[in-house]
Amino acid sequence: MSQRTRTWPFASGIFCAVVATMLAGGLSAQAADPAPKPLKSGIIRFEDAKAQQADWGQMRRYFTGETAGTKDVLTAVAIVKPGKAVHRAHRHAEEEYLILAAGSGTWSLDGRQFPAKQGDILYAEPWVYHGLTNTGTDPMIFVVVRFNSKGVKVPPRPDNRPDEQ
């Protein structure tokens, strides 16, 4: 991967402002131990985030665990190859934000398709099908912020449909 691809999203003022705003609500912290302990404030650099390689591209996990107000936290950056997706439209109990930092694609939300462009943010309620596919010609970079809130009961599975379409 080129140096430009690895560092570009973090040089964007819009990207930094969006992520900083989202993380200011209590999701900024250091990586959690396996035992549930609230995350502590900190910074994880791109090159230090745990990377997972796949045929679709790369996912870098930054913060996982719980905070003072959230549990089941995942913050990550995905770099998706043209024509690929991390997975098909899916659903889960956690609330989730997807922030499109670079590239273009197609959003899937509750059975509908929408054009996706840099700067877009998707919010998915618990159990709502959602996804993002890179339909552009360049790598697509998006940020994931997923969590459940402490003190708020997780909504039960609404039906017996599969969690991935």
The gyration radius over C-alpha positions equals: 16 Å
Question: What would the principal axes of the Cα set say about the shape?
Answer: globular
Largest sheet: 6 strands, antiparallel
As a percent range, the share of helical residues equals: 10-25%
Q: Oligomeric status of the shown chains?
A: single chain
Give the ordered list of helices and strands: HHEEEEEEEEE
CATH architecture: Sandwich
- How much of the polypeptide forms β-strand, as a percent range? 35-45%
Q: Which tags fit this structure?
A:
mainly beta; disordered N terminus; 9 strands; six-stranded antiparallel beta sheet; 165 residues; three-stranded antiparallel beta sheet; Jelly Rolls
Explained architecture:
The protein is mainly beta. The chain has a single domain, classed as Jelly Rolls, CATH 2.60.120.10. Helix content is 12%, strand content 38%. The chain contains 2 helices and 9 strands; from the N terminus they run ααβββββββββ. It has helices spanning 3-11, 13-23; strands at residues 50-54, 57-65, 70-80, 95-102, 104-109, 112-117, 121-124, 130-133, 140-149. The strands form 2 sheets. It has a 6-stranded antiparallel β-sheet with strand order 1-2-3-9-4-7, covered by helices on one side. A hairpin with a 2-residue loop joins strand 1 (50-54) and strand 2 (57-65). The chain is globular. The two termini are 30 Å apart.
